[in-house]
Design a protein that fits this description.
The protein is an alpha/beta fold and about 300 residues long. The chain contains 13 helices and eleven strands. Strands 1, 2, 3, 4, 5, 6, 7, 8, 9, 10 and 11 form an eleven-stranded mixed sheet that branches. Helix 10 packs across helix 13 and helix 11 packs across helix 12. The longest helix has 24 residues.
Amino acid sequence: MNPYLSISPEVQEALNAGKPVVALESTIISHGMPYPQNVETALQVEQTLRDNGAVPATIAIIGGKLKAGCTPEEIEYLGKKGPSVIKASRRDLPVLIARGEDGATTVTTTMIIAAMAGIHVFATGGIGGVHRGAQQTFDISADLEELAQTPVMVICAGAKSILDLGLTLEYLETKGVPVIGFGTDELPAFYTRHSGFGVDYRIDTPEELAATFKAKLACGLKGGMLVTNPIPEEYSMPKEVIDCAIEHAIHDMEEAGIHGKACTPFLLAKVKDLTGGESLASNIQLVLNNARLAAQTAKAMNKY
């Protein structure tokens, strides 16, 4: 057993009993939304998983411990600390552990800790990817590398539309990561259901998602699987509105000289302001939608 891994009693009991467990990230708590909405949303997502028959495992680094399953008090703690909590990727884990510090887990680190704990299904908002202008900057999210090597199914609303979606798909293809559209042939783009890019395969039921991932594991194929689940129609924002807001946000980011891991939080906050808060409301709804699908898929996986 990893001495740095701390699995909550509820999650450990569920794993021992073969109950469905779904991992959740914590960057959305500390960097994705303002307090107290971040805490309210995190607890609402956990409750959505419970309502759909799965046990939630919110993942974070607290006091140097890799937490698979956070208490409401720990979620409140992360929410209040907000952006002062380090946004932790793979490279940050050894230092945070050694120093006994806190970290909010990205898609990458949530996948790592989930895999350590034996959790195979993870619900999030959107993954990182290849940033616009990456041909010059080489700014490519570690999420894509993690998907290529860690055996976790990531259920999301597609790649964030602030990215270069075409290059993101090309990178995932190179790494051998299957990109699945749940009920769609088109890659969703986070706030909107449409991107103009196709997915590798369309799958229409949680049962087939579960069977496909089980087959991947059984064959010993390295890496995870990306399931893109479109935001519900009633919460989807017009593509042209989002594209316009993103262009403005990217211009402001470049003017401010922001780069690296600070880019995504800056852009999401700027898009929220430019859309009068509508993007934040859409963000919450797409996460809840992904949680429902993740719970159904985790339940189906337990039948195989």
